């Protein structure tokens, strides 16, 4: 319970990524490694890493380029219980040096408050 599936898509050719996570409910906590996602080397086929994320509190995700160890992007998101999400990491349309990170909902989460409202 209290988990969702996050598929991390690395569309950056020749770049390995490390994705870090922390709860937005935690004061002065450090980021914890969530996944390493290398790129397979084929332009039309991004590498995908599936991970489980907590839905108990909001999450802060930070994507770092493994070679440079600097933050490429940072997102805050509240995942829903049993939802299925994708984190797309790709070059921004505004420039090749800029990276865009977007969260897409693949399958909506369940309404975990439904049993409480019926009872």
UniProtKB/TrEMBL annotation:
Domain of life: Eukaryota
UniProt-recorded name of the protein: Heparan-alpha-glucosaminide N-acetyltransferase
Organism classification: Eukaryota, Metazoa, Chordata, Craniata, Vertebrata
Gene of this entry: Hgsnat
């Amino acid at each position: 319970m209290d988990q969702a599936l996050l598929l991390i898509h690395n569309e950056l050719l020749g770049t390995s990524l490390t994705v870090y996570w922390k709860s937005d409910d935690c004061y002065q906590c450090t980021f914890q490694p969530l996944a390493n996602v290398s790129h397979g080397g084929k332009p039309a086929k991004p590498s995908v890493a599936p991970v489980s994320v907590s839905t108990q509190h909001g999450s802060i995700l930070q994507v770092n380029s493994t070679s440079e160890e600097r933050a490429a992007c940072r997102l805050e998101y509240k995942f829903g219980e049993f939802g299925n999400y994708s984190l797309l990491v790709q070059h921004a349309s505004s420039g090749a040096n800029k990276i865009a990170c977007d969260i897409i909902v693949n399958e909506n989460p369940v309404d975990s408050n439904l049993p409480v409202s019926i009872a």
